[in-house]
Amino acid sequence: MSEQLSWFDPASTQTLLDGSGNYWAIIPRQGFYSPSWNLVEQDVPNQDGNRLRTVLAQPNVVRQVLLIKNTTESNYLANVRTLRQAMNPKRGAGILQFQAADGTVRQLNCVLQSGLEGDESSGVRGPAWIKAPCVWRAADPYWYDASATVATYSTFTAKTVVNSGDAVFWPQWSIHGPTTNLTITNVTTGKSMVFTLTLGSSDVLTIDTRPGVGTVLLNGVTNEYPALSATSALFSFPIGTSTLNFTLSGTSGATQIVLTYKQRWLGV
Asked: Which end of the chain has fewer beta carbons closer than 10 Å to its terminal beta carbon, N or C?
């Protein structure tokens, strides 16, 4: 199996960049293996050097030269227009997908920053072809699994969740009633979500813990965030193994807790 790069626009339409169409991802490329880092330091009075306070991943910038090529100038220009429309950042973020030679597939949520302006200098433009040095910027610096991992719990003994990625992940939960006064605790981190709430047999409570989202919705409509206790946290999962505990009452054979997540990676 060979490497394959492709682009998914905001409407999820895929454009292959592997030469099977009219677009080739060619050398050079940069930024596919890791974001850069911001080392946050603090001055220490009357001491040499600084104290390292934290390390933060910077927005990820990846660069890939694309060869756009066809047999005629008119067909070549049509290909440029098609790619320009697919990667128009005004449409919103798309997904750059990388499939490695070992079959691993990872995705970066990003927007095109530059590269399709049309540099027609000697050596980068010829009859019915151009080399486009594309640059994508990802505010969220991490690459994600292409497919989500889904765990469905219908018995509520202690469970383990393994994060084998390179960063914490923020999951989504679906609670299918009936149940009353649910508590989900990550024993490993000591953080819990405590709900004072009754779900009927047809009710579904969805919890999205992702930063910038942070919603708790009953049946996709009603905001039940106030049902969380003041000490609750929409918690993430750290790298390694976490143990989950569930406390709930008023359940039946139909009660389920569904955990959905994608692991995050520094690079491909």
From this structure: N
Total residue count of the chain as it appears in this document: 268
138 burial level (CB within 10 Å; 0-12, 13-18, 19+):
buried
Confidence (pLDDT) at 2:
85
Parts of the chain with a pLDDT under 70: none
d(CA 104, CA 11): 23
Type of residue at 242: S
Phi, psi dihedrals of residue 255, rounded to the nearest 5°: -70, 130
Residue 135 CA to residue 246 CA, distance in Å, equals 45
* Six token digits for residue 194: 């405590």
- The tally of CA atoms less than 13 A away on the side-chain side of residue 123 is 1
Q: Three-state DSSP class for 194? A: strand
Domains of the chain and CATH, by start: 4-145 (2.40.30.200), 149-265 (2.60.120.860)
